[in-house]
Predict the structure.
Amino acid sequence: MKIVQITPVYSPYAGGIGSVAQEYALALSKDGNDVKVFTPMYDPNVGLDANISRIKPWYKWGNAALVPQLIWKLRNFDILHLHYPFYGGAESTALASLIWRKPLVITYHMRPVASGWQEGIFRLYRLLIEPIIFLISKKILVSSFDYAKSVGLKSKKLIELPFSVDTDRFAPGDAPEIRASLGIDDNAKVIIFVGGLDDAHYFKGVDVLLEACSLIRDDVNWHLIIVGDGNLRQKYQDKALNKNISSRVYFAGRVDNDDLPKYYQASDIHVLPAINRCEAYGLVTLEAGSSGLPSIVSNLPGVRILVKNRETGLIAQPNDAKDLAATLTFLLQNNELRKRFGKSARARIEARFSRSKVLDKLKELYVETIK
């Protein structure tokens, strides 16, 4: 099949939407399909790749990009797979689907949350344009019905297809060299956070995490590794300093893909303290669980389904530093429970979220779509 992945962001930009699009593109290509990726060109210095077409936007705003060129470029594919939301690109993709009579599959990643006039624009878009795009589509894939229900997404076309993780790449193990490089002693309990530290990922909850860590009891030997980078990094570093926890917090920056599994292996607990519904899933929770780590995640639709509470991890209240601090302290102090949760997390990931199982289902859906 000739398949195209249309996505608002793509590697090397860090983010869940781009990661899923890349995962699909690479796996489908490896399976013998002719796969192309279309994504806006936000940075002209990004290297070229024959299978990735970076289109210069007519206009861009954040991760929105007006790319009407897509209408012509999408004419020769068997399947159009749109990663949504893609404001400025979704409309052209839907129009191309109509003009060229190509089946459109949509992966609905999340519903943006804003305030003031921006939220007004989003509401107008959801009222006038989004229904047309969904009407044109053949299937709408959601990572969880839990999240879809929470945002009022209703359609007979909805299919639950969770995102997945490479269980061979992310596996339990030890990485003492990571601890040694950061000066963390063997007896310390390490918390890990992985995510963007920029304005676009404000909802990850790093502010809340740092506040919570400052409330952990002094007699608990904890350290926090923050993997990720962005324009908010200095702000977070300043907060750690002001909270007198900078000696326990390590900003690792953006880590090479080959090294990321080692950071999980060097850790004891993973945390995703998202503050609102802009976080709709959490691929990092899958990576952590596959690495044999228990996770603490916020009680948010889509996010909470990746943790079986008190079996593979714990669920904390969003935007509540005191509750997160208490949850972290409890798990930091219970070694056997933490290890048991980690083993259960690995088993659950292998059973439900392994890459091979999820991609087999995706390929089945493609075949059904073009029949």
Remarks:
- The longest helix spans residues 335-352.
- The longest strand covers residues 34-40.
- The domain at 176-352 is CATH 3.40.50.2000 (Rossmann fold).
